[in-house]
């Protein structure tokens, strides 16, 4: 609750007052205890925000660490403090994350190879994967692509079961599932129940299950506002527990459920929840605040507080009632042995497997699907950058370029910048018309070709006149910007999502960061190089840049290196920020600074001293410098006046590029590339998920005996109404007995 606020006294009004606020403390979970048994399916139920996911995270030791959190308690497995080394836990989270272009079988097969080193033969591994597919009911979609929000793939329920199958690879002893019914409820729950029957301990959180799903639970934990309301067997026992306080379920004429009192004479004979009534709904109503009116809020809050208090008082008698000696632990021991046998492979093996996966993802995304959203993201980013730049410098070419690229995808974006529609190159673009349904590689290559054609048309066959000097510089600058932005936006649009998958897999210990990053970089080289090459091949002859093969080769080499450097920068941005949206906002903003100091718009020498380092780290500046040296050196221009520029070297001097070589610029770009790769590595290492440590509970709490009498031995007290009435939804109201 909120802490005290010290306000000044009336008499001290004239004295400057100091307001002291104590930071409010909120309990996300309070005094929660429970027990999950092998062979039984336990559901944690409660209203939204009641702390189900938090509890599940605590039990799975995966509560994301925060300096603002404090976590204390005891977590024991088979009577001993829990240790991650001895037991393998599986955790199926609410959101399912996969490589979208892989099939279900490929996903499972690669996960099995990464996690199970001891399965060496291909046949054994295929058999293992087939068994898992069968166990989780995924046989029918085994060869379907997983897909994602952009590309239709398997259904939500199938994704959930694929998550489960991936977790089952390591033969976990305990399975946690957070809201597993988000997809297809019945099948997922059936699979979980089957797993429980096979000897696993299964714990899932669920908001409000259907009656048929509720019927599958063996035990339930009811949580509200972070506190326990009930923990014990599901079904009739749970209803019987609440009936002790006078809460029975009955169906009323208005077709709703009425939470009422045992003492209500008209309800007393309907003590048991009828067959056709969903007990889960009754329980959900019982422990939720009713916001329909102020009185109902008050009444339901009192009811909930009473239930929490009552359970807290009798909790020791219901918990820890299972004697471990009575359980057959043979199965779990076997499972544990399997887990210990499992270990991640060596560096080289991980690298090869990850390279294969990265390659499959890239190749298949190139050959099979359209990626409209990616193209749209690209255009949006281009437009925002051009807008930003427009305010800084008047760069007409740049605006036209980006307006043109926007038009290419006009059919996908409706709120384009005004300039797009007024652009003089509108008609040219309308003829180019990139197909919106073509595969990704076609869309991306068409975009590369289209921008090359636009630049080629604007800078068509530049001659050797004095004015062509400015044109050349403009073209080379725009080519450098276009290449960098295309690579950056592609990377920041994709990498944050991939990072989330990788973080999870690394948290499971499937592989280390080094092999992952290296395999990703290697797999992306051919595709990363293809698009700048395509762009250069179309642009170069159209604009009649320095027409020799070696100069053309160097032109392509420079923009390809730049493209890799921009991708590397995109990786760092993606590793730094939590979401794609944030990455798409941060990445282009960074790049805008590098564009401004790209060597053409502003001379660093004329800027305040604090900005002078920026050109040295601007990949656009180095690319532009390399392209200029490649183009201008050895070129002769037509001239009439003595002050005209006669040679390309003079033009280079005016840009302050005289005296440097292409080699220098490529070396500088490579350094920038390595710097961003290294920063990505550090960022991924630094930002890997950290979990909140569980501190031992205070001494006085530890004195509570853990071994308690079974529930059966408890003598049930007849229900005694207390003095203070508990407001109810019904006409009569009774209090929860203070025990
Ligand atoms: N790290 C945290 N810092 C601050 N508040 C948190 C943190 N984690 C969870 N909470 C808060 O704790 C409450 C319980 O969250 P939790 O996600 O566990 O609820 P839930 O029962 O799983 O809800 P739902 O059914 O909607 O998923 C929420 O109000 C949430 O905002």
Automatic annotation (TrEMBL):
GO terms for molecular function: ABC-type transporter activity; ATP binding; ATP hydrolysis activity. Keywords: ATP-binding, Membrane, Nucleotide-binding, Signal, Transmembrane, Transmembrane helix, Transport. GO terms for cellular component: membrane. InterPro entries: AAA+_ATPase, ABC2_TM, ABC_transporter-like_ATP-bd, ABC_transporter-like_CS, ABCG_transporters, P-loop_NTPase. It is found in: Membrane. Its main location: membrane. The chain crosses the membrane at residues 516-540, 552-576, 582-602. Residues 13-250 form the ABC transporter domain. Residues 692-739 are annotated as: Disordered. It comes from the Eukaryota. It is a multi-pass membrane protein. This is ABC transporter domain-containing protein. It comes from Salvia splendens.
